[in-house]
Amino acid sequence: MSTRLTLRHALTAIGAATALSAALVGASPAATAAAPAAPAPTVAAAPDIPVANVKAHLSQLQSIATANSGNRAHGRPGYKASVDYVKGKLDAAGYTTTLQQFTSSGATGWNLIADWPGGDANHVVMSGAHLDSVTAGPGINDDGSGTAGTLEVALAVSRAGLQPTKHLRFGWFGAEELGMIGSKYYVNNLPSAERSKIDAYLNFDMIGSPNPGYFVYDDNAPLETVFKDFFATKGIPTEIETEGDGRSDHAPFKSAGVPVGGLFSGADYIKTAAQAQKWGGTSGQAFDACYHRSCDTYANLNDSALDNNSDAIAYAVWNLSTGTTTPPSGTVFENTADVTIPDAGAAVTSSVTVSGVAGNAPSALQVGVNIVHTYRGDLVIDLVAPDGSTYRLKNSSGSDSADNVNTTYTVNASSEVANGVWKLKVQDVASADTGYLNSWKLTF
Ligand code: DTR
Ligand code: CA
Ligand code: ZN
Ligand code: ZN
Fold it and tell me: Atom 4 (ligand 1): residue with closest C-alpha?
């Protein structure tokens, strides 16, 4: 809980990379009151990842399962066939691939590690997924989707001939379904000096769920922000992912002190009405009703989720490894003073004073809100412009029983003069739940 009001100018691309790298590796970030930004190095923006390419990989994984007793599980022929497929694509694209063999439950398994030649070997950005399925089925969403999305991003790096500042590594882990055996083996057998070079591990385990949600891992704030920034530019609301804490391949990396992030589209939990309202799909149904079942086939996918999440992987890989930040990289005005929200009481406000921003506010003003509060459906949240104009960010919802608000809202504030005192107004409209505004920020 902090009581400071901070004004953070846009960091230069180098400053941003330094700050982001410092934040990721635990050092204190660079000073926030940066000098006027130097022109950022021109780096190609992340490409769109063709979802048709991602689905072509998934079709191949489905064929592999079909040809191998219906699964791609550890210790079964379908797993090694999956490894061979992905490795073949990467070898042809110029990657340096390594098969790391291990034994689990009396059977041989493999991790497939692929390094993109070049970049600073002392700063590694790694992305990964698990390549094995359960024995019950082909595991197309769990985790063929993460496998295929990560593979297609790796192939996009090759197609672009990307020469990132940092070193890019990709991993497809075995025996995740047996308890993250492959990723544990990888992390435990990586010398600590090598482990400390990994600035970020990004995990993608289920990113194409048929009744999808958009969940972002909240294990590391800068990595969480990269993904939330991407979805904010797409106008896609996100929620914090907590269901998978400790349950996928990011866990061994996190235990070893590596900053982790990732994306998730949902498993056997039930989509609420509020979630269906913001994401579409069917409330009262599981995000993936075929989770760990034989029906987790090629038909068990949502193309939009697969597309958006694959594009988000590319955005994160490009931005974390090329030392740039892309919009919103503007000026941030933040208030981190905690404000208690009275239970079923009067609205409370928190202010930020915007100065030094010429003209009007943008049509995609980013409003980041962090509220710690049980049963967030009680809460109504408004942004109040300096002239008193009110913009509704969040309505109350009797069915949204989840806790906390950690969301970036996008507001068309182009009719508002930027400079002046902006307020966030929060009201708890139903009794028996309490909390406080932790922080909020405007990014111009
Ligand atoms: N994909 C599941 C593990 C799992 C369940 N919920 C989440 C949330 C986020 C990441 C992973 C998971 C499995 O492999 O069994
Ligand atoms: Ca795409
Ligand atoms: Zn699983
Ligand atoms: Zn999984």
Answer: 244
Q: What separation in angstroms does the CA of 351 have from each of 86, 335, 396, 441?
A: 52, 7, 22, 10
Q: What is the pTM of this model?
A: 0.68
Q: Mutation test of ligand 1: which of 71, 141, 173, 205 has the most ligand atoms closer than 8 Å to its C-beta?
A: 205
Instruction: Select 44-322's CATH number: 3.40.630.10, 2.30.30.140, 3.40.50.300, 3.40.630.30.
Output: 3.40.630.10
For the chain, residues classed under CATH 2.60.120.260 are 332-443
Q: Of 263, 221, 275, 189, which Cα lies nearest the Cα of 23?
A: 221
Which regions of the chain carry the CATH code 3.40.630.10?
44-322
For residue range 7-55, list pLDDT tens digits in order.
Answer: 333 333 333 333 443 334 333 333 333 444 444 444 468 999 999 999 9
* Ligand 1 within 6 A of CB of 264: yes
C-beta 219 within 6 A of ligand 1: no
CB 95 within 8 A of CB 116: yes
Q: Which of 243, 245, 265, 293 to mutate to test the pocket of ligand 1 (most atoms within 8 A of CB)?
A: 243
pLDDT in tens, 115-167: 999 999 999 999 999 999 999 999 999 999 999 999 999 999 999 999 999 99
Q: What is the DSSP letter of 298?
A: T
Q: Name the catalytic one among 176, 177, 224, 416.
A: 176
176 is catalytic: yes
The CATH superfamily holding the domain 332-443 is Galactose-binding domain-like (2.60.120.260)
